[in-house]
Amino acid sequence: MVVAADRIRSLNKYEKTILLALERGMKHYSWVPLEQLKTATKLSESEISYRLSRLIAWGMVRFNPVPYDGYALVFGGYDTLALATLARKGTISALGTQIGEGKESVVYDALGLGPVAIKFHRIGGRSFASARLNREYMPDEGHCPWLIASKKSAEREYLALTSLHPAVSVPLPIDQNRHTVVMSLVNGQNLNRCRLDEPGTVLDEILENVQKAYRAGIIHADLSEYNILMDDGKCVLIDWPQWMETGHQNAQTILERDIDNILAYFLRKYKLVYDREDAIRCVTG
Q: Binning pLDDT at 50, 70 and 90, where does residue 133 land?
């Protein structure tokens, strides 16, 4: 859950300074020592202790007393830094409610120049271990792998969206900061929740978009019925952080897995038979 917007607005300038110091410090420490925070923020011990107690109560910072008094940023604090930056840039002016959740992200609606969606990448714990095995860009080590991994995941997704839009039916990328991606709001349902009147037409459209992405040098690498939205009868392909370049040594295997996932779904739900080799040729030919 993202920290409440009113909590972010009520942050004292000292509390923002502490969050930024923790973000920098966690490049070098798993738990940033209190002495290091005092040096970085130039705040007195009483002031910094008071502000840290508030940040801990608000779910932005965590404390660990062993082997020394140390503090760490958690997702609530990282969310706060990202939202504050996006608000300062004018990208968003109000945060709405949660509209989606995945294994490694949560999505909220928000207000920018118009309605937008903001995706918070959340790679930590077991999801980080899985991501490190499956994604070559993930760090093998580091004092704060979840922070680094979540930021890299957001950066990669934003890069994919900017590379593909508008040729491929993907959300319009608007901005990216830390572990967040701001994009156009798609008012559609997941493909798996829809009952299509013309499934064959939709399958053709999906394959056509996979083909266009392939021609742009990009393979989704995690394509299924769960990351395709149907908006006014048109498909929109979402969730791109795992994308792979077509020149990768495993590209053909990953592409065929994406295609197999989609063909299997349409066969299972609609009894629609589509020749696998024809589908692969359609995309790569």
A: very low
Work out the mean pLDDT of the chain and round it to a whole number: 93
222 is an active site residue: yes
CA distances from 190 to 77, 96, 117, 226, 234 (A): 30, 20, 15, 6, 12
pTM of the predicted structure, to 2 decimals: 0.92
Catalytic residue among 6, 175, 197, 222: 222
Return the CATH fold of 93-184.
Phosphorylase Kinase; domain 1 (3.30.200)
Domain 5-76 falls under CATH 3.30.300.30: no
Decide yes or no: CATH 2.40.30.10 for domain 189-284: no
285 CB-contact burial (10 Å; exposed 0-12 / middle 13-18 / buried 19+): exposed
